[in-house]
From TrEMBL:
It comes from Lumnitzera littorea. This is Coated vesicle membrane.
């Protein structure tokens, strides 16, 4: 459970970074 949640969190983090970059631009 923890491992799966961590994997999902990492994926979401990457997406958040992309969104932030888009908003920054």
């Amino acid at each position: 459970r923890d491992a799966r949640h961590r994997h999902t969190n990492e994926s979401t983090r990457k997406r958040v970074i992309y969104y932030t970059l888009f908003e920054y631009l």
